[in-house]
Design brief:
single chain; eight-stranded antiparallel beta sheet
Length: 217
Amino acid sequence: MPLIRLELLLPTLAALLATALNPPPPPPGPTPAPSPPRVARNWPVGTHPPVLRAWDPPSTAYGAGHRGVDLAAPPGTAVRAVAPGRVSFAGRVASEGVVSVELDGTGDPPLRTTYEPVRPTVKKGAEVTAGEEVGVLEPPTGHCAGGCLHWGLLRGETYLDPLSLLPPWLLRRGPSRLLPLTDAPPGLRAGVAWDGWPPDRGLSPARPAGPWPRPPR
């Protein structure tokens, strides 16, 4: 009788041993969210503002991180919609002016850009086009030492990198251009290439080309 019971237990013991030696693979993790479409047609401030602080997503929903990017700009700068959409919020949150725009044609729920601290110049429900002013940058409230715009991007409640909206041609500096004959700044000859002209007139000009070397005699 004990021998019969042992024979019955052998298949079970073999199955347990096989499971212990070959554990099943872990379940697949969550599928990463697809990259946002590059629908932006301009920067929200200026033409290529310095990024003072980049997007740094927190490891948990309530963890430390940076849920957007900070773009350098002085108070009073016009803040513009980066893509066409509808204003979903324009008002103040904790004494700070905020404008949110739901972007057209970006799915359900749509992508939503946020701009702060701003004095809104649009109202909730307004339709805006790319490049249209939605507010004026307010003085810093402690988020930046100097003036800056905090630009955010969300889909639903998930924060994304706002810079991912910008196509490569907006992320790169513009090509070198020849200065117009009547618009050359003092000390620089017309016809000399100056990277960033126009509109980044604050960039350092390129060194003018010297005279052609004389051929040896």
